Automatic annotation (TrEMBL), chain A:
It comes from Desulfofundulus thermosubterraneus DSM 16057. The keyword Transmembrane helix applies. Pfam families: AzlD. This is Branched-chain amino acid transport protein. InterPro entries: Brnchd-chn_aa_trnsp_AzlD. The chain crosses the membrane at residues 6-27, 39-58, 87-105. The keyword Transmembrane applies. Keywords: Membrane, Transmembrane, Transmembrane helix.
TrEMBL record, chain B:
GO terms for biological process: L-valine transmembrane transport. It is found in: Cell membrane. Its main location: membrane. Keywords: Cell membrane, Membrane, Transmembrane, Transmembrane helix, Transport. The keyword Transport applies. Belongs to the AzlC family. It is a multi-pass membrane protein. Pfam families: AzlC. The lineage of its organism: Bacteria, Bacillati, Bacillota, Clostridia, Eubacteriales. The chain crosses the membrane at residues 12-31, 51-77, 127-154, 160-176. GO terms for cellular component: plasma membrane. This is 4-azaleucine resistance probable transporter AzlC. Coiled coil: none annotated.
Length: 106, 237
């Protein structure tokens, strides 16, 4: 487990450096095709939605649209504050405070 | 001369420092609560140096995803570094390969934006960029260390609701990314596909499948949204 974590860290580090240095050394004249650039533009929103949805709609790999699903409950105020404030800090505090409340209630 | 450029870079990095410190501290706390060691936290901030990659890696490790799934997802997310580096490259064509190899590691969304803001004025100076990049990186590593040390003092993190911190953070970043109808549709589609695939296979592959599919649909929807479908392939940059 410990070794796997280190392997992942080093792997991502190598990948990131490659992504950063290769274009800088080689790509002074070649341009990235605009279609690819636009596709990459949608990656962040897609990844984030793909990360969030299972966290709040699934519980142990099965759909959990119930009041016992604390993640789903905590997500509601979190989403509202995120839309209202667009602030990373306030959203984080709301999410954490909501979850602390639901954890305390059992 | 060099010192003056370097100090100007440091000064330009200060707004980035203010943004990085709380984010890096959050990362440190979350990573420690996902059972990463302080050494691993610092190594990530020093060597990976990318908020999105580090948060996603920690989140997926915590969820028990397969190493290959984590690598593939991070690779997809961080492929945007290629774009940043590629668009910076033409402005730095006069620099030597060793200088470029050193500066490359300092490229992030934020340092890129500040650096490009300056290259419009005159050819960027490598001491200026060194001051800018090194200062921002130090803030990132320093914030992570502070968070990593603080994280262990908090004890059982579920009691503080910290088991939801990563999800809350992703929610916030997701909402900020929603800029128009297409991005909203892409988000809904990615979420739906991710949930469906997650019920079928484990290991975090739902994320990469959903991302590729939804991003592709996003590009297609751009095309459908155009009044005339013709000549969309040569749209101006």
């Amino acid at each position: 487990m410990e070794q796997t974590v280190w392997a992942i860290i080093l792997g991502i580090a190598a990948l990131n450096y490659l992504f950063r240095v290769t274009p800088l050394l080689l790509l002074s004249r070649v341009r990235i095709p605009s279609l690819w650039a636009r596709w990459l533009g949608y990656v962040p929103v897609a990844v984030l939605a793909a990360l969030v949805a299972p966290e709040i709609f699934l519980n142990g790999g099965v759909p959990a649209l119930t009041l016992e699903n604390k993640n789903l409950l905590a997500a509601i105020p979190t989403f509202l504050v995120a839309v209202k404030t667009r602030s990373l800090l306030f959203t984080l505090l709301t999410g954490v405070a909501s979850m602390a409340l639901f954890n305390a209630l059992g | 001369m060099n010192k003056r450029h370097f100090l100007r870079g440091v000064k330009d990095a200060l707004p980035i420092v203010l943004g990085y410190l709380p984010l890096a501290m959050t990362f440190g706390v979350l990573a420690r609560s996902s059972n990463l060691s302080l050494g691993q936290v610092l190594s990530m901030s020093l060597m990976i140096y990318s908020g999105s990659a580090q948060f996603i890696a920690v989140g997926m490790l915590g969820a028990g995803a397969a190493p290959a799934g984590i690598m593939a997802t991070v690779m997809l997310v961080n492929s945007r570094l290629i774009l940043l580096s590629a668009s910076l490259a033409p402005h730095l064509s006069r620099m030597t390969a060793p200088a470029l190899s050193f500066l490359a590691h300092g490229i992030t969304d934020e340092t890129y934006a500040v650096a490009l803001g300056r290259v419009g004025e005159k050819p960027p100076n490598r001491w200026y960029l060194t001051g800018l990049f090194v200062t921002a990186h130090l803030a990132w590593v320093g914030g992570s260390a502070a968070g990593g040390i603080l994280g262990t003092l908090l004890g059982a993190t579920a009691r503080w609701g910290l088991n939801f911190a990563l999800t809350a953070m992703f929610i916030s970043l997701l909402i900020i990314q929603l800029k128009n109808n297409i991005t909203i549709m892409v988000a809904c589609l990615a979420g739906l596909v991710s949930v469906v695939v997650a019920t079928m296979i484990s290991g975090g592959w739902n994320i990469i499948v959903a991302t590729i599919l939804a991003a592709t649909v996003g590009v297609l929807m751009e095309k459908w949204n155009k009044p005339s479908g013709r000549s969309s392939s040569v749209s101006p940059r």
